[in-house]
Amino acid sequence: MAGRSCTAPARLASSYGLAVIGGGAGGMAAARAGARRGLRTVLISDGALGGDCTFTGCVPSKTLIEAAAHGRPFAEASATMRAVVGRIAATEDAGVLKGEGIDVVEGRARFCGPRALSVDCRSIRAKVVVIATGTRPAVPPVPGLDAVPFLTNETVFHLDELPGSITILGGGAIGCELAQAFQRFGSHVQVVEGEDRLLPREEPEASAVLAGVFAAEGIGVHLGTSVERVEQATSGGGIRLVRSDGSSIGAETLLVAVGRRPATAGLDAEAGAIELDERGFVRTDRFLATGASGVYAVGDVTGRLLFTHAADEMGRLAVRNATTRLGRLGRRAFDTSSIPWVTFCDPEIARVGLTEAEAAKAGGKVAFVPMSGVDRAIAAGRTEGFVKLIAGPRPLLRGSGGGRLLGATIVAPRAGEMIHEVALAIRTAMFTGRLAQTVHAYPTWSTSLRQAAAQFFMETNGRRARPASSPPGR
Questions:
Q1: Pairing of strands 253-256, 248-251
Q2: CA pair distance 59, 64, nearest whole angstrom
Q3: Is 396 exposed, middle or buried (0-12, 13-18, 19+ CB in 10 A)?
Q4: What is the CATH code for 145-258?
Q5: Going by DSSP bridges, is the β-strand pair 253-256/165-169 parallel, antiparallel, or unpaired?
Q6: Tell me: the pLDDT tens digits for 58-108?
Q7: Which superfamily does CATH assign the domain made up of 14-50+92-137+261-330 to?
């Protein structure tokens, strides 16, 4: 967030209890938490309030995905998307925040000393500073890429017309979600991924299900692909990705979705005694505090879980930790073990806690229920997914009561809703047996969770929980 040079006379610094840099989910959560605690609070933002999630991430992408799933035309879906973005943005603008007791300053902030900020020509000092500057799309150093037009999540939602063909560089969550949506709108879509499977952070079984779905829907997938260079096509227009073997992949439009980079450039972190890691993310401890007294960082800029709901949790937690009257004893660590995430493809892929490979090191056990064994999935004709529950020994009590749940992956049309039952079980350190005992309405998708939990106690439908393995196996 580089600030412009200022030639105006210096003004007396404004003094606040809390200054928040960044107007995305984490920043707004922190500012609202500060205002609720009675702090004089200022939120500094160099872009529209709401940040990536509202304008270039969750809101527009999920609106398009929903429209594509219902077969709506791209032009109609785009109009709806803009209306939805406008409606949500109106709930978090400067006027709304002002009514909540939060001052909003437009501009780019940089540190000019400990808990001292410069915003263009204005000086701001605060007892507590929260950095919530987020991330930007990462652009790989592929020769020729800077010489051709390409899209990122910051520009793809500005398209006025549906591309006839689109190549997506990156097979992670953003790339896969948009690949399926554009294919359903009518584009010819190809996904290029350097790893040997889609969604490399997910369980291999989830990647396999999605690959099968993509193949059935006609989405081209190129795995383990190294792109040597990018060039403008010499005939017919469009862009070509040239692979290491000399072959090429061409399309009318290129979307780059290979990850995120921290938005810390120009923040002058050194002036505020803020330490960055080797990738440029702000270093924090488990309480979200930086090495500088009174300065915290939340959301994507920390390099932790890069999700809106995680940023929201971090924002509120950081302010709590900074202002607790109990000092160090009153602080609470940011715990990722029960925070779920969802890839909004069809079927959805939801995960919380440990993967099987991670659980193998902790002596975990795995229960697996294919959707082909779930009556609701059979009735809906959607049997391509599964539920995988991971449990492990409880301190002292070990495996009694089935131990405790450590993680889960769910692949199903409503996986994003189903995963929260497991997240709650992990958050409350619930006995696995409680989930197996809980009566679920029939026939629902969530019945599969009870079926899976039962495997930790008995054989059900020919399946029993097995030891976790690394690499995972069936």
A1: unpaired
A2: 9
A3: exposed
A4: 3.50.50.60
A5: parallel
A6: 999 999 999 999 999 999 999 999 999 999 999 999 999 999 999 999 999
A7: FAD/NAD(P)-binding domain (3.50.50.60)
